[in-house]
Prior knowledge:
This protein has helices at 17-28, 32-43, 45-89, 97-100, 125-168, 172-187, 199-225, 240-253, 260-264, 273-298, 318-350, 360-378, 382-391, 393-416, 420-423, 433-451, and strands at 7-8, 121-122. The chain is mostly helical. The two termini are 33 Å apart.
Amino acid sequence: MSGKTLQSNPSSSSYSAKVAAVFLFNLLVGVGILALPSAIAKAGVIAGILSLTTVSFMAFISVTFMIEVLATANAWRGTKTVVARKALVKGYPAQDDSVAQISQIKVKNDVFSAPLFEIEEKFEMGYMAELFLGTAGSTFFYAVLCLYLYGDLAIYAVSVATTLEKAVGTSHQISYYSFLWGFIMLIGPFCFFTFQKTTYLQLFTMVMRNSAMGLMILLTVLDIANGHYVPSDQLILWDTEKSKELIGITVFTFMCQHTIPSIILPLADKSKTLRVVLIDYIIVLLYCSIIVFSAVINKPASQISPLYSLNFSDHSVTVLAKFLSLYPVFTLSSNFPLICITLRNNLMTLFPISKDIFCRQQLFTLIALVPPVVIAIFIHDVGQLVALTGSFAGLAIMFVTPGLLVLYSRDKLDRTVPQWCQIHHHKSPFQHKAWVYLTLAFAAFVLITRIF
């Protein structure tokens, strides 16, 4: 995620549509879903239904924009390669200005052909922002991505410290800060190194997450069946003030736009890309709805913890109580160094200082690690952090950047190859400009509601 590297798609590392769906599902079902039950219980059932359906639909639109732009970036890269080869054949230098500025000239229709819109290289959002939005767009994206990752790290730190505090059951003033400090001392050193994602880590996280989520649903449904539920006339239907915070949490829950290139590239049959995304978003929407509304029906808003897994810390079955209450510790601790390293790499891209500076990597690691810890010291509410992260930096990554990317990439294609719609088989089904403007307007609406 650091930005400008391009990777080919070796067949040896490809996977099926089912595997791609699993990876995308695991990315979507993160810590944000644990903050939803409390937020929706306070904001109201109607607000929850509207927020979940609207944000998930708008998020799906923006993901289709990202898929289209990724294919367009591949086509642009392929076009430059084709023109460079023609220049070499004719005896012109490969690095001629006419080749470097291919995006500014008319190209022959045969240069843009269907194979060029195949997704064969991974272009991160930062690279695509620079390609289609220029230096200013690229800088904006890296800035909001860093802010989002700072928020992510703060959410993880608070979630782990709060979970351990609740599990141990000691006094807040001592234990929260002690656990936060212990967590940073234990996990922090791993942030100073590089990482390579392994299948075992992904499998461990996947099994832990889905086992915990499944158990929470099962235990809640059984509790409702035993007569423990909130009477319908006592359910909150709508609270305008709490609804503003809810939208930010929902945005955080459904965000995966910045990881789309990494998910799509290894997909063996990329014609199934749109189908995988659609099915995943439908399943995640249903998954969130079951968890959230079973929790809302089961207990009043005042009894639902901001971190939903903590609601089961007092369960009569001790093993289940400990597993569910400590679940965030296992999964978030394994991801914390990865996110911190990603943030460090993006900061190094955003602020390119000389590589000769002593301890450059260690310096940027500290810049990435210290601010989230400071935030976690002063803000202990996971729901508030999720809402703030989703409402500002999350909006820019989820809606603003994809909207601008698809708008400007289509404009470039319109000026070079007017018939590109006929050969671009990864184009979004939302082709009318009104969809782009709707996405940007929705982001503006969420931002305004959060500010005012």
